[in-house]
Model the fold of this input.
Amino acid sequence: MSYRKEVKVTAVLELRQARVSDHHVIVGCVQQWWNDSRTPDQAHELSLLLPRLFLQFFSRTSLVLEDDEGIRAFLIGFHAADNEEEAYIHFVGVDPSLRGQGLARRLYTAFLRHAAEAGRRHVRAITSPGNTGSISFHQAMGFTVEPGDRDIDGVPVRIDYDGPGQDRVCFYRNILSQDENVRP
Done:
């Protein structure tokens, strides 16, 4: 187990849209930030979930938080092409030294607001059944766990969702547009 130094956010973190040029940095962040909970090979494998295409085609809906040290948190998300009412949060990362300080909440809130402004009414996300921190975070953000094929430790899980042995917890959240005076 590695020691994680907590760093208080003292500088202002700028929130901006992601750019294609961020791809290399974000992949490096995944490989570095998940090194505390995975082997280097596993962290590399995880980074493969972020091919360049996400920033080539969804940079407008993906977000980055950065300061003078660089990217400190990111959210890769998009508006569904086949369903004009849905958006999807694909991958979120926060520098381990800054976790627990509301950065993921800030990214989700901005994504939900932009999705609502674009007329999206629902947002989906998934996580692994063993990622209890992610499950708790999504529930705290107002996401509902969708029904699954089986319960694991009291959590509904969709078996083989992403292929054999790739079980997932699926989340769903309704958001309403600003016209309806409801904030995401």
